[in-house]
């Protein structure tokens, strides 16, 4: 299809098309505004300078070099990179760890220094996450505490203030349960001692038996005759009247011997 003039649709003969240098010169020297003047670019100049300007014009759209997918005018690049980009690196304002901005919310869920509210809504109100247990155990005026003598049997629980009063008021009771516990401990220890003594006795017995076995080690043969019934029957029938043991030594470097047996007598 032959190209047509965009204005009156007349077909254009390519051979008759030429560059009108004089007209080009005229247009080159026309005064123009930046194509992005609507976005506020104040640049004006000659048409022939426009291309060079456009290349550097800060109203040109660009996409984030960090690949976050956001599009903005070039002039906002620095601001985007420093303040807005979800891929920019930041430091956690609580624990100072380096992280990617878009992961911040997730990090704050576990950040050890992040301030969390006291579950008892006490006066301190907010505590660093890593200190919460300590706060509840040692500081919080609204936390229910176990009596320090709980492991000795005191069942009292109460807030810090009540606990102070309890400990002050019940010193005698606490001494009593403490004494009882110590006595019980002694008894347990006695039982333990007994158990240990018995164990030692047993060990001694086992040791003696092991020594005994070692003394026996030497010219000793334990000859286990398997299939005895069968062999006895063979001996009776005269098929095989004598059987031989596996070879054994008289002692560690002694004679090698074998036993023989006639299960149904010798002839
Ligand atoms: Zn411009
Ligand atoms: Zn970005
Ligand atoms: Zn943190
Ligand atoms: Zn608290
Ligand atoms: Zn108590």
UniProtKB/TrEMBL annotation:
Transmembrane segments: none annotated. It comes from the Eukaryota. GO terms for molecular function: zinc ion binding. InterPro entries: TRAF-like (IPR008974), Znf_RING/FYVE/PHD (IPR013083), Znf_TRAF (IPR001293). Keywords: Coiled coil, Cytoplasm, Metal-binding, Repeat, Zinc, Zinc-finger. One of its GO terms (cellular component) is cytoplasm. Residues 52-95, 107-164 form the TRAF-type domain. A zinc finger (TRAF-type) spans 52-95, 107-164. It is found in: Cytoplasm. Its main location: cytoplasm. One of its GO terms (biological process) is regulation of canonical NF-kappaB signal transduction. Residues 182-216 form a coiled coil. Gene3D superfamilies: Apoptosis, Tumor Necrosis Factor Receptor Associated Protein 2, Chain A, Zinc/RING finger domain, C3HC4 (zinc finger). This is TRAF-type domain-containing protein. It comes from Macrostomum lignano.
């Amino acid at each position: 299809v032959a190209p047509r003039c965009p204005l009156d649709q007349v077909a254009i003969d390519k051979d008759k098309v030429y560059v009108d240098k004089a007209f080009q010169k005229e247009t080159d020297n026309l005064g123009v505004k930046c194509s992005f003047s609507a976005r506020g670019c104040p640049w004006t100049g000659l048409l022939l300078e426009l291309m060079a300007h456009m290349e550097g014009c800060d109203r040109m759209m660009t996409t984030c070099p960090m690949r976050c997918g956001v599009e903005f005018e070039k002039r906002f690049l620095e601001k985007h990179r420093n303040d807005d980009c979800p891929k920019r690196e930041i430091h956690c304002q609580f624990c100072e760890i380096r992280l990617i901005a878009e992961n911040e919310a997730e990090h704050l869920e576990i950040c050890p220094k992040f301030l969390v509210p006291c579950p008892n809504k006490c006066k301190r109100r907010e505590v660093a996450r890593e200190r919460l247990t300590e706060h509840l155990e040692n500081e919080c005026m609204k936390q229910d505490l176990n009596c320090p003598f709980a492991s000795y049997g005191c069942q009292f629980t109460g807030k810090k203030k009540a606990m102070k009063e309890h400990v002050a008021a019940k010193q005698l009771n606490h001494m009593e349960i403490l004494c009882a516990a110590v006595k019980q401990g002694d008894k347990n220890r006695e039982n333990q001692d007994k158990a240990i003594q018995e164990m030692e006795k047993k060990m001694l017995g086992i040791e003696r038996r092991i020594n005994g076995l070692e003394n026996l080690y030497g010219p000793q043969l334990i000859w286990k005759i398997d299939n005895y019934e069968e062999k006895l029957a063979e001996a009776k029938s005269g098929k095989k009247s004598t059987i031989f043991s596996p070879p054994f030594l008289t002692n560690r470097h002694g004679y090698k011997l074998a036993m023989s047996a006639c299960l149904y007598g010798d002839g």
